[in-house]
Amino acid sequence: GIQVEQSPPDLILQEGANSTLRCNFSDSVNNLQWFHQNPWGQLINLFYIPSGTKQNGRLSATTVATERYSLLYISSSQTTDSGVYFCAGRGGSSNTGKLIFGQGTTLQVKP
Amino acid sequence: DSGVTQTPKHLITATGQRVTLRCSPRSGDLSVYWYQQSLDQGLQFLIHYYNGEERAKGNILERFSAQQFPDLHSELNLSSLELGDSALYFCASSPVGGPYIQYFGAGTRLSVL
Asked: Chain B interface, mutation test: which of A23, A37, A42, A100, most B Cβ atoms within 10 Å?
């Protein structure tokens, strides 16, 4: 099955810094999504981005489907950005909707 | 708020017991997915139902079963619980006709003691 690799596994930032999180896929994927899991465990949808670039406030994401990777940019980070960031996708040849998740990037933003 | 409702939020039980987790999808969504998040396995797909029918199974143990009812809510039944079943269980739903964005509930945190 498809493998999803996220990097870096851990990231510590000072408030106000920028960061880039990466997600690599072993094969083509559809329905790529980025999530933020907050300290209470909730999975918050950030982006649905099968290809191209999207922006939402201080966050933006880019997926280059032909090269099997996606990037999540966080600018001017805040302490509330702390948590775990997951990317997930559905296998390109899969006829089910199941999402395959990466292992996540744990972000800590220090004041 | 994703619009997906999961109950209960927390569940503490003993080994060997049986529990039922409940999920109500977003209004209009016919698909319900169950995922398990454990420390050692990460987030893993368990099962997918569409309009009452099972569509796909993932890494779901035989001790676990699920169903989706005519009103589209779904239940995940976990039996003969073991310590290793302690995890966060998520339900997600997605809209009919795409885009196939999955919206996740807040999860049920299961602790098996």
From this structure: A42
Burial of A78-90, coded b for 16+ CB within 10 Å and e otherwise, reads eeebbbbbbbbbb
Res A2: pLDDT: 85
Which pLDDT belongs to residue A1? 79
The confidence score (pLDDT) of residue B41 equals 84
Please report the pLDDT score of residue B99 as a whole number.
74
Q: Judge: B102–A97 Cβ closer than 8 Å, yes or no.
A: yes
Residues of chain B in contact with residue A30, where contact means CB-CB under 8 angstroms, are 100
Distances (CA, A) of A47 to A43, B6, B24, B30, B103: 12, 22, 23, 21, 11
Task: Give the sign of the dihedral formed by CA A67, CA B98, CA A105, CA A19.
Answer: positive
